[in-house]
Design brief:
The protein is built from 3 helices and no strands. It is mostly helical and 95 residues long. The longest helix has 44 residues, at 2-45.
């Protein structure tokens, strides 16, 4: 019975991760479609002031944090085992 419960938990966790990844890619797609439109509008109607940078950077930061939340620190080298790996690395270097 416990194995079925664990399998179901793993399935639900995997399903949640897939939804988060899907949400990130939707966010990225919308960003890539809307930002060029914002740039076009800015350069067409107010070419002397490039206010589109506020949108590019602000939304870009939001997209970066969405990526960080979705994929975690693992891609940056900071996973759950980071502290353990660093401790072992330092212990091996000192010997």
């Amino acid at each position: 019975m416990e194995k079925d419960f664990t399998r179901e938990q793993r399935f639900l966790k995997a399903q949640k991760q897939v939804e988060e990844i899907k949400g990130f890619y939707i966010h990225l797609t919308v960003y890539c479609l809307v930002i060029p439109f914002i740039i076009f509008i800015n350069l067409k109607f107010v070419p002397h002031f490039h206010w589109f940078w506020f949108s590019v950077l602000g939304w870009g930061f939001g997209l970066f944090f969405h990526w960080l939340n979705t994929f975690g620190f693992n891609l940056l080298g900071f996973g759950k085992n980071w502290e353990d790996r660093k401790i072992k690395e330092f212990m091996n270097d000192n010997n």
